[in-house]
Amino acid sequence: MTEVVMRQTPPILHGPSEKERKYDRQLRLWAASGQAALESANILLVNSGAGTVGIETLKNLVLPGIGRFAIYDEAVVEEADLGVNFFIDESGLGKPRSQCVTELILELNPEGESTLEALLATSPIFTIIVFTYPARAEHTSLLQEYSKQHKTPLVAIHSAGFYSYFQIQLPGAFPIVDTHPEETATTDIRLLTPWPELSEFAKELTKDIDNLDNHEHGHLPFVAILLHYLEQWRETHSGSNPSTYKEKIEFRRLVQGATRTNNPEGGEENFEEAVAAVLKTVTAPSLPSGLREVFEYKHSDPNEQMSGFWIIADAVKTFYAKHKCLPLPGSVPDMKAQSKVYIQLQNIYKKKARQDAAEVLKTAQEIAPDRDIDAAEVELFCKNAAFVKLINATGGTGDRDTSNTDRLKTVIAQELENDENAEVTMTPLSLLPIYLALQATGRVASASADEILAEVAKTVPEASQNERIRNAAQEVARAEGGELHNISALTGGMVAQEMIKIITKQYIPIDNTCIFDGISSRCQVVRL
Amino acid sequence: MASADVHPASEPARCVFLFRRHLDRIRTRAGPFTDPDSFSGEAVAGAMETMKILVIGAGGLGCELLKNLALSGFKDIHVIDMDTIDISNLNRQFLFRQSDVGSFKAEVAAKFVEKRVKGVKITPHNCRIQDFDEDFYMQFQLVVCGLDSIEARRWINATLVNMVNEDVEDSYKPLIDGGTEGFKGQARVILPTVTSCIECQLDMHAPRAAVPLCTLASIPRQPEHCIEWAHVIAWDQEKPFPSLDKDDPEHITWLYQKALLRAHEFNIPGVTYSLTQGVVKNIIPAIAATNSVIAAACCNEVFKIASNCAPFLGYPDNNYMMYSGNDSIYTYTFKHEKKDDCPVCGNLARKLDVDPTWTLRELVESFAVRPEAQLKKPSIRAQFKTLYMQSPASLEEQTRPNLDKTLTELGLTDGEEIGVTDPAFATVSFKFKLKFKQSD
């Protein structure tokens, strides 16, 4: 009936708005929800040194429409800035660098506002703060304090010569629901634990499978095919499903053997799909590692526990304990089938997914009766449950208690040991020497290789005996605190990607340090 | 203004020195990884200033490339792009403003960078790369690509490979190519005839599998099927406008409406204007941040190749960097091996699996979808006769009857070599060796 109605009154054809057209290419990545998060974000850049990497980062955030930004920079524009920073021109010589850069960056997207030289005390709360090295100790401690007080993520960047690194400090455990798994990632379609409605539907389609005409047989959706032959398998295997790899291969052969080849096409696409899906979908539900981490997470902060995410996570945990599977995501992959049959199948999955989400919502409401639980948030969680990810899960008892230096020492020892076997294991060499050499110049404009090595030796006593650390120190000394525009633009791009992920709570940010080597053109992410 | 007072404009050398301070610290002094045999700190600045660099594409990557090269010490840069500025470019193509919409990208980009970075000359070309011949490309020392089309990449790759003359050192033009999609991208360095070329790497960019026509025509299941139906079938039947302009909102709206009606007929949810546009134009998501990463990775290689101040990607080791930012950050930098049977830079014919019972038409059509070929309008020659020619019209007509003959009927044999040309790659003849499927 709906079709008649639709034909009589064609839908309102609203073309895209001006803003949707401008942001079209990015809305396809993070949708309106991500865009809204960006537009309400307020960013502070505390800029120093050559100052390019911070500005390139900011450029990549202003373009997609960040809400507000402020730049704090004590530098005055000099000739050398013109050769490395694109957002400074001759008319800015002698002016405060923050002012000159702000003017030229604002041209990019006049929709943003800016506060000049905003001070932490007078500005609206910052969503995220970026600062660049070399940085003054009193500045970093001020920012640390602010970050702790307001739970503001802090990003530190250091770019010099061919090297760079950046480090993200999140104020607590950072869960992401909308992780955007790869298209090839499999979703649970419950072939081993079908609910009655799905079983009935498949049975109806396959009850006379051998007598269906070629057209019907060749259009059975693979879900129904697999459910049918699983049933058959269980009859001959005392009620149990194929579970070992060997059994699955045998089951696959069974399905393969049921393909009709005496038809004009000499085969059946739907059976091919069924055969190809066996190993991936005929699998007992298990708890993915990301979600396990969420379930096992111990809160150190009682407020954190009462956020929407954690209440829903608790409710999903209850669901999992009760049903031995996660709430159904509700999507069905495309498969060869008659349109009507496919849509019916799709609706059966959607209906079940809605039921599961409703159950989770009810549990969540019982867990936190005085809180308004957002049904849409529950639905999103249920849909993505298998791909939920927790970053920075150090909570309370974790390694937050051990000092950064101790942790760094452990990681370095491990990395340098790995390097000894790199040739045998065919793994790329660690980039930690680069991090160490850059970090050694974190407070000074430039330093000689010997000075850098002496500084590194405070953490790694054998530094000067390590050829790779020696080389990295020389390479950093060569730059004398100078930035190469390319390395800073590249790093600024990576940092902007990470900040977008954190602000939109979509995709998965790094945990927590990314080191880039512009000589071998590769990077390494390591938790420090 | 202190520095300007002490060093007035009448002392340009001093200013240039200050202007390039960051750059010179690196490029004029050897580091621990610099190859002393190929590096000369005194000569490098002068050498780079006289080099001619060609940038292909003034879009998302192109804007970044021009900025990066201008701030890397190059002074003579050319840029080719036939496109004009669209509002959907403004979220990342930072050299363009609202008021530039409709103007040529190459022209606006060149003017902007010239104005911002003093002493850099940028020559724009508002045209297609195919409009130039080898003489034009011969004047450059390096070519950097920021393109969204695989076809244009293959064309310039084939052209640069063809230009190589073993006796002329200057005929080797390194090609640095970047590409992005969403949070992902890649940067690669190609030394024509020496390292793996874009054609060698073609299977890394396999085209998305097309939806079978029968699905579109009779059993649609997804919103995309309804949109493709409107695009491929309904449009041809009804011809609402003389020709389809994918940038005309009126045309997209027509397709959207058609797709929507079909979706309602089959109860398929999810057809939207945005999806329609995405499917029809094959829109690839693009953001400033990823362009920034990939363009800078490319220009960093250009800078290293031009200055020799540090080892670059290419010969003999890694030549390809893959970048992914979806799940944390991951780079994979590796060596893509040159293929001896590459139709462009190899000297062996590439094996082509065929069924001898196929008609020539089936063979012709299969070239478009094979990941290793991707030729849309192939003309085919066997060793001693022409099998099918797409043009000129008279030759097409003459060879058309062959299309319905099977490969066996045409006298083709297992192991025979055929040559394939395509108007998209004017100068290249792709060599394939037929490998007959064993009949059972």
Mind explaining what this structure looks like?
The complex is a heterodimer of chains A (528) and B (440). With 528 residues, chain A is of the alpha/beta class. Chain A has 4 domains: 21-172 and 485-526, Rossmann fold (3-Layer(aba) Sandwich), CATH 3.40.50; 196-281, no CATH class; 289-391, no CATH class; 404-479, no CATH class. Chain A has helices at residues 2-8, 18-22, 24-39, 52-62, 79-82, 97-106, 137-150, 196-206, 214-217, 222-236, 245-257, 269-281, 289-296, 302-305, 308-323, 339-367, 375-384, 404-420, 422-425, 432-439, 449-457, 467-479, 485-504, and strands at 42-47, 68-73, 113-116, 128-132, 154-160, 163-169, 174-176, 389-391, 513-517, 522-526. In chain A, the strands form 2 sheets. An 8-stranded mixed β-sheet of chain A has the order 3-2-1-4-5-6-9-10, with helices on both faces. In chain A, strand 9 (513-517) and strand 10 form a beta hairpin. Chain B folds into 3 domains: 2-182 and 286-315, Rossmann fold, CATH 3.40.50; 213-281, Arc Repressor Mutant, subunit A (Orthogonal Bundle), CATH 1.10.10; 351-418, Structural Genomics Hypothetical 15.5 Kd Protein In mrcA-pckA Intergenic Region, Chain A (Roll), CATH 3.10.290.20. Chain B contains 15 helices and 13 strands. In chain B, the strands form 2 sheets. Chain B has an 8-stranded mixed β-sheet with strand order 3-2-1-4-5-6-7-8, with helices on both faces. In chain B, strands 9-13-12-10-11 form a 5-stranded mixed β-sheet. Chain B starts with a helix and ends with a strand. Mean pLDDT of chain B is 91; it is low at 1-14. The interface between A and B is large, with 94 and 90 residues. Chain B: Its EC number is 6.2.1.64.
